[in-house]
Amino acid sequence: MKFTLDARTDVHLIRGYSEDEVRINDLVQRAPCIVTAQQLVLDWQARTVATLALADLEQIFALQPDVVLLGTGARQIFPDRVIRRAFATRKVGLEVMDLGAACRTYNILVQEERRVAAALFLGLGEGPP
């Protein structure tokens, strides 16, 4: 799906997505990634929602978001309770949704100048795309 926005050009926006890629501005990403208004983490070591570990969250928490949108691929998949607890302990909001919803919500929150990070898995969120 492609998005058309008359939007700020000084932030990272998700311009489109499909099952196997996300387009952030003019960059096409085909692996799990983290996106904020000012930063991209394209070498995120997390590979699946099911194997998401506490160590994988450190790159997210280092960005100091107020809320994280966890895009879990083609369908919504909730991470393990330990992962959800890590967000609560750090007082960082966690919203779990499918990839499309995460991309759309991210763009809205970035335009509102919120401190948001989108942690995105492609495909089914269950394995490498």
Number of helical segments with 4 or more residues: 3
Strands of the widest sheet, in order across it, are 5-4-8-6-7
Give the low-confidence spans.
none
Helicity level: 10-25%
Characterization of this structure:
The chain has helices spanning 54-61, 81-89, 99-111; strands at 14-18, 21-24, 27-29, 33-36, 40-41, 67-72, 93-97, 116-121. The chain has 129 residues and is an alpha/beta fold.
List keywords for this structure.
129 residues, alpha/beta, three-stranded antiparallel sheet, globular, five-stranded mixed sheet
Secondary-structure blueprint of this entry?
Layout: E1 14-18, E2 21-24, E3 27-29, E4 33-36, E5 40-41, H1 54-61, E6 67-72, H2 81-89, E7 93-97, H3 99-111, E8 116-121
Parallel strand pairs: 6-7, 6-8
Antiparallel strand pairs: 1-2, 2-3, 4-5, 4-8
Give the gist of this structure.
With 129 residues, this protein is α/β, with parallel strands linked by helices. Helices cover 23% and strands 27% of the residues. The protein has helices spanning 54-61, 81-89, 99-111; strands at residues 14-18, 21-24, 27-29, 33-36, 40-41, 67-72, 93-97, 116-121.
